[in-house]
């Protein structure tokens, strides 16, 4: 037995059921040993994509993400993915190997730890074999507890050394993760806040990922129903209230006209299980008339450069909301807003609106307005399909596909990096093998890592890839236009994405109108093959979030 066999055993004992990999000297023997132990693998075509896939897998499965790439250039390729995982607080372990400790010179040698630490992640170096299993166990436990990814480096000559006669004792990180139960709030604080909520005339309830993780959705709906509040979510928690008649979909920069009206008019925001990110308040442009009550296990006053909350309840999201509601019912009965019609009016407006944004634009005849396009796709594609919403200007439009549960939705945008949509979709595909997955991406983000189409094809993963193709870096051209600069570095003209997909063995379709869409859909269902639908969209339709951003620059 070699030492890498024992590393593989120690990692196999953890709470990761899938490994995403790209091989090299630093990790290939370890990866082979792990595969032999029965770990399913997805072999990516770029290290960044392997890490991105592991991130998406972790988000959707609730497990710790697992990836392995080689040392040196393998590691330097993953800095964007690793930083994105840090920002999104995704438990993740990446095994990268290290250059041989016994070599006088090795061409791929770099000091790896500073790269990892610069991303905000942790570096664990394994050089002493008797400590190895414990270090691995502890690394998996720490990333689960903190949400800070851990990169494990281990010189590959040590990995390849004979293990010898020492006993192999591996243990699961679960033994190092306390099962300490849910945080209950201070009852006095609950009573104080019940008075605040009962007095609110136009309250809104917002759920974030903390509410998702605490399964606080139904409790939030009961609270909202009692106090007459519309429901909103942060973008990552989109769909948490999808089946409530009073859901106004997402808040923040992507809010619809009606959701925005609610956020401008509200006098009390009950923000449940959210990190109060700047985007969720449209960089401070939302809630000008409101106090913010933050219910969270780690409540904050200050977040991402601004005062983001004024009242606080330290509690698990579900327990906090349930106890607050119980106190309101016990002490106040109907509240100031519960008999009002504010939220009914908002819900009626949202239901009557054709599109989330009513601004008219001139759209040329050979391209599509993304708003009716998304509405058509929303009607066509089953609600139970899993939807990955990528990045870029176009992601605003795709965020308005309604009636879709948060359980079938993924977006990871905390680092603002484009180019990950396809990898995220592949990570979800590994976690949800029976579910149909549809990815919405921009042409620029898609082309940044189009090589992963080969991974999809090779692993037999039938994705539907919808590209909203404005032939440009839309986020850039809209800003450059307002600044009066030329668009040369951001407007590229047409690339035949359907032909690219065909080249990788997928089915490719190009659309300049909605003609043929129903046939393409029927064909997709009938075929055992992934497809890319390339929709030529107008570069004149500017999302409201971009209009506000550029108006602020004028
Ligand atoms: C890794 C990375 N590189 C560059 C950027 C800057 N950037 C933000 S959006 C964007 C354009 C994305 O284009 P596309 O995917 O076509 O979406 P669109 O904005 O056109 O809808 C770029 C280049 C970024 N956010 N991340
Ligand atoms: Mg584009």
Summarize the structure.
By secondary structure, the chain is an alpha/beta fold. The chain contains 23 helices and 20 strands. The strands form 4 sheets. It has a 6-stranded parallel beta sheet, sandwiched between helices.
Provide an overview of this structure.
The protein has 554 residues and is an alpha/beta fold. The mean pLDDT is 97. Helix 1 crosses helix 2, helix 1 runs parallel beside helix 7 and helix 3 crosses helix 17. Helix content is 39%, strand content 15%. The chain is built from 23 helices and 20 strands. It is globular, with a radius of gyration of 25 Å. The strands form 4 sheets. A 6-stranded parallel sheet has the order 2-1-3-4-6-5, sandwiched between helices. The protein has a 6-stranded parallel sheet with strand order 9-8-7-10-11-14, with helices on both faces. Thiamine diphosphate binds next to helix 18 and helix 20.
């Amino acid at each position: 037995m070699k030492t890498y066999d024992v590393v593989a055993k120690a990692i196999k004992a953890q709470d990761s059921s899938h490994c995403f990999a790209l091989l090299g000297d630093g990790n290939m023997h370890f990866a082979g040993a792990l595969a032999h132990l029965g770990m399913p693998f997805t072999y990516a075509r770029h290290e960044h994509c392997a890490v991105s896939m592991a991130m998406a897998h972790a988000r959707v499965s609730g497990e710790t993400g697992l990836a392995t790439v080689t040392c040196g250039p393998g590691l330097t390729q993953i800095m964007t993915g690793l930083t994105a995982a840090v920002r999104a607080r995704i438990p993740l372990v990446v095994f990268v190997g290290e250059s041989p400790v016994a070599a006088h010179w090795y061409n791929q040698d770099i000091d790896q730890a500073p790269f990892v630490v610069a991303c905000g992640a942790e570096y664990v170096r394994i050089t002493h074999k008797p400590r190895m299993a414990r270090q691995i166990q502890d690394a998996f436990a720490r990333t689960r507890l903190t949400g800070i990814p851990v990169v494990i480096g281990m010189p590959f000559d040590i990995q390849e050394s004979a293990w010898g006669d020492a006993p192999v004792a591996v243990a699961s990180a679960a033994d190092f993760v306390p099962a300490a139960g849910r945080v209950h709030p201070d009852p006095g604080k609950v009573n104080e806040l019940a008075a605040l909520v009962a007095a609110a005339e136009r309250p809104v309830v917002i759920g974030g990922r903390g509410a998702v993780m605490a399964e606080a959705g139904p409790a939030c709906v009961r609270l909202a129903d009692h106090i007459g509040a519309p429901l909103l979510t942060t973008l990552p928690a989109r769909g948490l209230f999808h089946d409530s008649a009073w859901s106004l979909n997402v808040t923040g920069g992507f809010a619809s006209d009606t959701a925005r009206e609610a956020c401008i008019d509200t006098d009390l925001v009950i923000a449940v299980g959210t990190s109060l990110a700047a985007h969720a308040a449209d960089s401070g442009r939302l809630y000008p008339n409101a106090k913010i009550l933050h219910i969270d296990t780690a409540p904050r006053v200050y977040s991402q450069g601004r005062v983001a909350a004024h009242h606080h309840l330290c509690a698990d999201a579900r327990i906090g909301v349930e106890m607050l509601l119980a106190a309101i019912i016990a002490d106040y009965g109907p509240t100031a807003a519960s008999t009002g019609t504010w939220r009914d009016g908002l819900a009626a407006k949202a239901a009557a609106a054709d599109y989330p944004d009513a601004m008219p634009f001139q759209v040329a005849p050979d391209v599509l307005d993304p708003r009716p396009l998304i509405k058509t796709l929303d009607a066509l594609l089953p609600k139970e399909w899993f939807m990955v919403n990528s990045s870029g200007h176009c992601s605003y439009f795709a965020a308005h596909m309604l009636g879709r549960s948060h359980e079938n939705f993924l977006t990871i945008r905390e680092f603002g990096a484009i180019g990950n949509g396809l990898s995220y979709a592949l990570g979800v595909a590994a976690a949800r093998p029976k579910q149909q997955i549809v990815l919405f991406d921009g042409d620029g983000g898609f082309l940044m890592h189009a090589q992963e189409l080969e991974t999809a094809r090779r692993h037999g993963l039938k994705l539907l890839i919808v590209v909203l193709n404005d032939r440009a870096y839309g986020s850039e051209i809209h800003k450059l236009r307002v600044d009066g600069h030329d668009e040369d570095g951001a407007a590229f003209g047409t690339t035949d994405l359907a032909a690219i997909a065909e080249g990788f063995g997928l089915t490719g379709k190009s659309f300049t109108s909605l003609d043929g869409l129903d046939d393409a859909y029927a064909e997709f269902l009938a075929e055992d093959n992934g497809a890319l639908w390339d929709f030529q969209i107008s570069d004149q339709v500017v999302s409201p979030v971009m209009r506000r951003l550029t108006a602020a620059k004028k």
